[in-house]
């Protein structure tokens, strides 16, 4: 029982993100297509509940380098990294939608990734 409580406490203290808090931070940091990017964070972390994924590194997008997940001081820092990545690579006029861009960029290896994002967005009720 103590082990379970310890894990739940660590999970809450270390991560602390919710759908609403992540969305608000995406908007605050000026992320383009914030609902799609929110869906990416949900997809990458299993609704912020995964145990053996990038979430343990405060990396809510699954960014990696040399076969290792990047580590951030906070999940907000991973959004800041996403913003820098987006600013360097995304040229809006070159793509009809952000989904098209993610497909073109080869963001994910899962062929159902874009459909998964669309299903997540349909299920969301994000406060604006």
Describe this structure in words.
By secondary structure, the protein is mostly helical. It has one domain (2-123): Lysozyme, CATH 1.10.530.10. The protein has helices spanning 2-14, 19-28, 34-45, 75-89, 98-105, 113-123, and strands at 64-65, 68-69. Strands 1-2 form a two-stranded antiparallel ribbon. Strand 1 and strand 2 (68-69) form a beta hairpin. Helix 3 (34-45) packs across helix 6. The longest helix has 15 residues, at 75-89. The protein is globular and about 35 Å long.
Short description:
The chain is mainly α and 128 residues long. The protein has helices at 2-14, 19-28, 34-45, 75-89, 98-105, 113-123; strands at residues 64-65, 68-69.
Percent strand equals: under 5%
Largest sheet, order of strands side by side? Answer: 1-2
The Cα radius of gyration reads: 15 Å
User: How much helicity do the residues have?
Assistant: 40-55%
Tally of strands: 2
List keywords for this structure.
single chain, mainly alpha, Lysozyme, two-stranded antiparallel ribbon, 6 helices
Helices and strands in order:
Layout (H helix, E strand, L loop, with lengths): L1 H13 L4 H10 L5 H12 L18 E2 L2 E2 L5 H15 L8 H8 L7 H11 L5
Antiparallel strand pairs: 1-2
Helix pairs in contact: 2-3, 3-6
């Amino acid at each position: 029982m103590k082990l379970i409580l310890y894990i739940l406490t660590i999970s809450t203290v270390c991560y602390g993100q919710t759908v609403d808090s992540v969305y608000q931070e995406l908007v605050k940091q000026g992320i383009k297509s914030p609902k799609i990017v929110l869906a990416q964070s949900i997809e990458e972390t299993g609704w912020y509940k995964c145990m053996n994924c990038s979430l343990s590194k405060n990396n809510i997008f699954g960014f990696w380098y040399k076969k290792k997940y990047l580590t951030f001081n906070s999940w907000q820092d991973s959004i800041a990294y996403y913003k820098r990545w987006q600013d360097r690579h995304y040229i809006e006029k070159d793509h009809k939608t952000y989904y098209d861009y993610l497909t073109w960029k080869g963001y994910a290896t899962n062929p159902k990734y874009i459909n998964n994002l669309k299903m997540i967005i349909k299920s969301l009720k994000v406060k604006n």
